Amino acid sequence: MRFIVITGISGAGKSLVAKQLEDDGFYCIDNLPPLLIPKITEICSQSYRKMDKIGLVIDIRGGELLNDLFPALESLREAGHTYEILFMEASDKVVIKRYKESRRSHPLAQEGRLLKGISEERRVLQKIKDRADYVIDTSVLTPRQLKDAILGIIGQDSSFRGLIVNIISFGFKYGVPIECDLIFDVRFIPNPYYIESMKKLTGKSDSVRDFVLGMPETVEFLDKLNSMLDFLIPNYVKEGKSQLVIGIGCTGGRHRSVAIADKLNENLTEKHHRTIVEHRDIEKDGRSASR
Asked: Are 70 and 117 contacting, i.e. CB atoms less than 8 angstroms apart?
């Protein structure tokens, strides 16, 4: 029987995760009091439908009942079952934006003080986050990218303790993604923007990709970057890190950074790492974003 505990910051996408798990055959329960986990296990194991994949959404709405989470999970382990904790994260700015759009109130927001409520929630949930098997930051993920990340987790053996690598291409002129753990500036590579035939294209096109990846500077850069990541990723995993966000930036985020981010993704995928790629600024105005 496989148990995935879905938890994390309010507004970070827990409901979307639960829906995706249900689509994959999980029986999901929202806002379950943790004390009931052993009872739910017993019911599901005896069900004629053989419900052997369970998703439990447990978060700050439980209030003081959250204190029962780890004792309940320990009981689960003692009964011979394994479990995984998936922690959903998002930046304060993104969470606030999502709450304003939905017009819902935060569980801990008193007198409408949303930021204070988010800060308190982070404090309360920190111990759970520290013990999470997976942490997914949805600040910059599209629904499709989130789905791919969840499918990657579902497809892993329950004993897997790996790391999700999120690669973001961006343009420095539009700002640096604040969620990045590592940022690499590739503006030293010759810019295809100044070649008329490639000016309005992106790093997704064959001509731009061949131009960028064919540069000696790019070849050497990727060789050094791959070697560094071969060293870093196993050590990050060893220390319990479950998500690595890598930013690849050029001036406008349309040519060089896109081609290099895609190539990095190919290299990591070949080494069986789970990756998510986002080209943050590729759709910005080509005239101003590619310089």
From this structure: no
Q: What is the mean pLDDT of the chain?
A: 86
Contact by Cβ (8 Å): 12, 57: no
Q: How crowded is the C-beta side of 92, counted as CA atoms within 13 Å?
A: 10
Read off the DSSP letter of residue 107.
T
Give the phi and the psi of residue 245 in degrees, each rounded to 5.
-110, 120
Query: What value does the mean pLDDT take over residues 131-153?
Result: 82
Residue 159: the pLDDT is 44
Looking at residue 30, the DSSP 8-state letter turns out to be E
User: What is d(CA 31, CA 10) in angstroms, rounded to the nearest whole number?
Assistant: 12
d(CA 253, CA 14): 30
Structural domains of the chain, ranges and CATH numbers in brackets: 2-161 (3.40.50.300), 165-289 (no CATH)
Instruction: Please state, in angstroms and rounded to a whole number, the distance separating the CA atoms of residues 217 and 253.
Output: 18
Q: What is the pLDDT of residue 160?
A: 47
Which tokens in the block code for residue 31? 């806002």
Q: Between 195 and 152, whose confidence is greater?
A: 195
Q: How far apart are CA 271 and CA 162, in angstroms?
A: 13
Edge-to-edge strands, sheet with 274-279: 182-185, 243-250, 164-171, 274-279
Write the CA distances from 226 to 218, 231, 237, 242, integer angstroms.
12, 9, 17, 19
Number of Cβ within a 10 Å radius of residue 178: 11
User: What pTM, to 2 d.p., does this model score?
Assistant: 0.61
Q: Measured between alpha carbons, how far is 205 from 191 in angstroms, rounded to an integer?
A: 14
Task: Please check whether residue 178 is in contact with residue 91, taking contact to mean a CB–CB distance below 8 angstroms.
Answer: yes
On the question of pLDDT at 138 being above 90, the answer is: no
Q: What is the average pLDDT across 88-115?
A: 80
**pLDDT for the residue numbered 97:** 87
**Mean pLDDT, range 135-159, rounded to an integer:** 75
